[in-house]
User: Fold this.
Amino acid sequence: MSAEEALFQRFGKEIPVGTVLCREGEPGKEMYVIQSGKVRISKKVRDVEKVLAILGPGEFFGEMAIISNKPRNASATVEEAARLLVIDPKTFEAMIRGNSEIAVRMIKKLAERLSDADAQVETLLLSDPNSRVVQHMLQLCQTRGRPLEEGIEIDFPIRDLPRELAVGEPAIRYLCHRLEKSGLIELQGDRLTVRDTARLFDYLRFLEAKLKFGDL
Ligand code: CMP
Assistant:
C-alpha cells in the first residue's frame, strides 16, 4: 500500500461536488489535505461570492481556525469530487511537532498564500477589467511561470477566473483572442504562454494610461 493510500485509510473521506466543508464565520475543528479533486475557497463580499482560490491536490485548508482558535475566515466548497484527509487538531499538532518538514512546508505555503493575497489586492485595485486580466497573467508568470523557449507558460483556466477577477468569461476570451492576434500570448486549452513579459507589461501600462487620459 502506498503512503498516500495508507493515509487515506486512516484519515480519508470521499466528498461529492457541492459539499460545503467550512462556512465563513462558523467555528471549525478540522483541517483538510486534498489528495485529489478541487476545492473552492470563497468569501462573501456584500452578498456576492468572491473566490479567493481554487485549491488542488497536495494543498491544504481549514488550518487557520485550528491555529488561531477563531471562526472560519472563508468558506470551502468542493468544486470537483475530492478525496480529502480530514485532520483533527490533536493529530495536526502531533504532525507539526513530530515532523519539522511538514511544518516548514506549511510555513512556505502560508507565505505563498499571503503574497498571493497581496497580489489579489493589487489586481482588484485596478478598475479596468482588461487591466485586471493582464495584471493577473503577469503575476502568474512571476509566481508560477514555467520558462520555455517560446516564453513563459502559466496555467490559465479561464472558466475559474470570472469570479476571481470580477470580469465576465466572454470578455476574458475576447481579450485573449486580441492578445493572441497581436502575438503577445498563445492560448492552448488551460495553458497560456506569454511570449514576452516586458511587452505585456508595456501593454498593461498602455491600458492604464488610456484609462487615465481617455482619448485625449
Ligand atoms: P479556516 O479559516 O480554518 O477555514 C477557511 C480556510 O480557507 C482557511 O482556514 C484557509 O485554510 C483557507 N483560506 C483562506 N483564505 C485563503 C486564501 N486567500 N487562499 C487560500 N486559502 C485560503
